[in-house]
Design brief:
By secondary structure, the chain is mainly alpha-helical. It contains six helices and no strands. α1 crosses α3 (about 45-75). About 15% of the residues are buried.
Length: about 140
């Protein structure tokens, strides 16, 4: 009774890529000093205010870089897409997988694959730059 389609692809990719964002967030939390949070609590701020004004700004770059890395991983993931897509669902990875078997489509597939590689490298580059700046600031 489960209709496979775009929603199952999204859930599959979320499940696959949440680990990247989680690992970046946990690593960022471990690097953050605890004294500003303790000072906030001592000065009477509740948990939500402390999180919003102290913890979240310290984690912002890690969450952004985790999101960019998850996007880059998910963008060209063919295995998860093939197993979670329905019969009528057409995505770029599925199109490449079916078009690569036809010799007349190979030049178009090569161009699309090059664009996908470039679109996957750019978020990783920015995530590394953002994560590197956050690590150098924390030191």
């Amino acid at each position: 009774g489960l209709n496979c389609g775009l929603m199952t692809i999204i859930v599959g990719h979320d499940t696959f890529c949440v680990v990247v964002a989680y690992n970046n967030g946990v690593a960022s939390l471990r690097r953050l000093p605890r004294t500003p949070e303790e000072a906030s609590s001592d000065l009477g701020a509740d948990t939500w205010v402390t999180f919003r004004r102290i913890t979240m700004p310290g984690m912002r770059t890690a969450l952004l870089s985790g999101a960019l890395l998850a996007f880059a991983l998910s963008f060209d993931e063919i295995i998860v897409t093939l197993f979670t897509a329905g019969a009528g669902t057409q995505t770029i990875p599925i199109w490449i997988f079916t078009a690569i078997q036809r010799p007349t489509e190979l030049p178009v597939v090569n161009v699309v694959a090059l664009v996908l590689v470039l679109l996957s490298v750019v978020p990783v580059y920015f995530a590394q730059r953002i994560g590197g700046e956050a690590a150098s600031i924390a030191r």
